[in-house]
Structure formats: structure tokens, C-alpha cells
TrEMBL record:
Pfam families: SPL. Keywords: Lyase. It comes from the Bacteria. GO terms for cellular component: endospore-forming forespore. One of its GO terms (molecular function) is S-adenosyl-L-methionine binding. This is Spore photoproduct lyase. InterPro entries: rSAM, rSAM_sf, SPL, SPL_Clostridia, SPL_firmicutes. The keyword Zinc does not apply. The keyword Lyase applies.
Length: 340
């Protein structure tokens, strides 16, 4: 569970249960500074002149806000819409896309008016009936480390449990999921865990749960009957990568219960970066060890008008062949959604 150093409450947020719960949880904790904002200017309350320090202070800051404006962003290809419950993440993953996308907002912001957000989701669902509408809860965040006191996922899962035409999914690198195990979900929420090798986690994913804790949490989720998936990402090619990723699959298989309610899904994503991301990462993590030598990569133009440095064609082919073969061998009943 994430314990922030400071919590900023935007105006009116203490009227909502989510705001009250967070306030009551931390009000007597002398290590947590509580700030009630009179204007909704957040930045000036987070120390740090330089991006390096501001990023670190931001990652220790929780902002409780209210989602205004109810146009949901699309979320292709993983879902139809982003569900805007939370933005930002407490993790310090060096390669994280949020470093670029939320660079000036590294703090975690939770939206207290979850009922409004869910009723807007219902409107989007109604527009598409009889088609199913899928919402992604982790498009701009990892919502799990704050779940023990926000209960946003719990409320959302219970909402979708009763939804005929709506589904929910989210992905995490954390294990604070115990509050989700004994609630009604009706199989309408898919929980995915992002996994990687010990080396990648210890080199590049500071302040995330260990691989053991992620796998333990995923076992609990499986036993609770949720649809379960794994994202193995980002794949890095390094000395011994195949052995390490194979070990990961075998360890996972040993610990997962058999006879699952739904087939497990796998998504596999190789490491890639943009020039903009590289510039931000170099400032925020000057000692990072990410392989970002442009000359060793292929430049690929993307659908959003900017290009990315991906592994070479030969490397991607090797990654595809390796994971297709290994996943089928270790998890013959699983579904591989894509390997990119
Ligand atoms: S856990 Fe996910 S969202 Fe959080 S910093 Fe790491 S990659 Fe980013």
C-alpha cells in the first residue's frame, strides 16, 4: 500500500466518501502532511525546482480531486474507453510512458466522484447496446497501490458485475488486491498483471511489487474466479534473456491453480522508446541502464504521427518465435493476444 508524504485535497472533495475515507485514514499520521487546497493549483505545493527533484516529490504526493467534464478518452486497441478513476502512479519504472505523458504531473491523482464517473460509463454503454463496451482502468495509472483506501476498483468492479453490456479491465504491477477477492464480479472484470524477469524488475522497476508478490496476487485473483491475464513487458534482450523469461513462465505455471474459470491470456510487448521519452528519462533517471542506443534500433513510424525506436526486425522475429513457442509449451491452453 502506498503511504504518501503529502495529500492535497482539492475543494469539495471531502464531501465524497472517497475523500472522507482517505482523510480519516491519514489524518492522525504525523508523517503525512494534509493540505486543503483553496484553489486547485497543485504544482506549487510540490517541492522541487528541477525536474529530477520535482518528479521524486510528485511520486510521494497524492491529490484528491474531482473529475470534471465527462468525455472519456478512447483506448484502442485494449478497450473502447479509458475509465478516468486515477492518473499517475507511485512506481519509478524508468521506461514508463507516464514519464513522458504526465511528465509535469508525476503525482497520483484520484477522482473522488466515482459515482459520477460510473454513471457516465453507463451512458457510453447505453450508446452501444447490444454491443459490449469495455473500459480500461489503468490507461494512465496503476490504480492498485492506492486501492486499500480509495476502494475505487472495488466500487467499479461491483458496478460492472451488474452490467449486462459493460466490462472492465485493468493491469497492475502491485499486489494490494485483497479487498477485491471477496466481492461480486460476475466475471465482468479482467485483471492483468505485468510481469518481467528479476533482472529487469530490479534494474528498471523501482517501487513496484516483487515478482513473487505479483504472482502471489495473481494466484489469489485466479482463485477468486476473475478472468486473468499477463502482460510480459517490456521485453529486453540481454545476455541470458531467454533463460530468464523461460524461468518466469515455468515459475508462474508451477504456482497457478489448474482448472481456471477462464483461459489465461498473454500480451507480450518488446521495449521501445520515442526521442521525447529518451530526453525525459535522461533527466529524471540520469543513471538509467535502459538500452536506448538509436543506432541499434529500427525507427518505426506510429499511428499517432510520431515514431518509435523498436528492436530490429531480426530481434523482433526472435522475440516472437521465442514467446510463441515458450508460452504454448508451458501454457498450452492459454491465449496469446499479441506479441509485438
Ligand atoms: S507501475 Fe506501470 S504505470 Fe507505474 S511507473 Fe511502472 S510502468 Fe509506469
Amino acid at each position: 500500500m502506498f503511504v504518501p508524504q503529502r495529500i492535497l485535497f482539492e475543494k469539495e472533495t471531502l464531501k465524497y466518501d472517497v475523500g472522507k475515507n482517505i482523510y480519516n485514514k491519514f489524518k492522525d499520521n504525523e508523517n503525512v502532511e494534509i493540505i486543503n487546497l483553496t484553489s486547485n493549483r497543485v504544482k506549487q505545493h510540490i517541492p522541487g525546482e528541477e525536474i529530477y527533484e520535482y518528479y521524486r516529490e510528485g511520486k510521494n504526493t497524492l491529490v484528491v480531486g474531482i473529475k470534471k467534464g465527462f468525455k472519456f478518452q478512447s483506448c484502442k486497441p485494449s478497450a473502447h474507453y479509458q475509465l478516468p478513476l486515477i492518473s499517475g502512479c507511485v512506481g519509478n519504472c524508468q521506461y514508463c510512458y507516464l514519464n513522458t505523458n504526465l511528465g509535469d504531473k508525476p503525482y497520483i491523482k484520484v477522482n473522488a466522484n466515482v459515482e459520477d464517473i460510473l454513471s457516465q460509463a453507463q451512458k457510453y454503454i447505453n450508446e452501444r447496446i447490444p454491443k459490449i463496451t469495455i473500459f480500461e482502468g489503468a490507461a494512465t495509472s496503476d490504480p492498485v497501490p492506492v486501492e486499500p483506501y480509495t476502494e475505487l476498483l472495488k466500487k467499479t468492479i461491483e458496478f460492472f458485475a451488474n452490467s449486462e453490456y459493460g466490462k472492465f479491465r485493468f493491469v497492475t504491477k502491485y499486489n494490494d488486491i485483497d479487498g477485491l477477492l471477496n466481492i461480486k464480479h460476475n466475471g465482468k472484470t479482467e485483471i492483468r498483471f505485468t510481469l518481467n524477469t528479476d533482472k529487469v524488475i530490479s534494474d528498471c522497476e523501482k517501487r513496484t511489487a516483487s515478482i513473487n508478490n505479483r504472482i502471489d496476487a495473481s494466484v489469489k485473483v485466479a482463485e477468486a474466479g476473475y478472468p486473468l491475464g499477463y502482460i510480459i513487458a517490456p521485453i529486453f534482450i540481454y545476455d541470458g534473456w531467454k533463460q530468464d523469461y523461460m524461468k518466469l513462465l515455468i515459475d508462474l505455471n508451477k504456482r497457478l491453480p489448474k482448472n481456471l474459470a477462464y483461459p489465461i491470456t498473454f500480451e507480450v510487448i518488446s521495449h521501445r522508446y520515442t526521442t521525447r521519452a529518451k530526453n525525459v528519462i535522461t533527466q529524471v533517471f540520469p543513471n538509467n541502464t535502459l538500452p536506448m542506443n538509436d543506432s541499434e534500433r529500427t525507427y518505426k513510424y506510429g499511428q499517432f504521427g510520431y515514431g518509435k525506436f523498436v528492436y530490429t526486425k531480426e530481434n523482433i522475429l526472435e522475440i516472437k518465435e521465442f514467446f510463441e513457442h515458450s508460452i504454448k509449451e508451458v501454457f498450452p491452453d492459454s491465449e496469446i493476444k499479441y506479441i509485438i
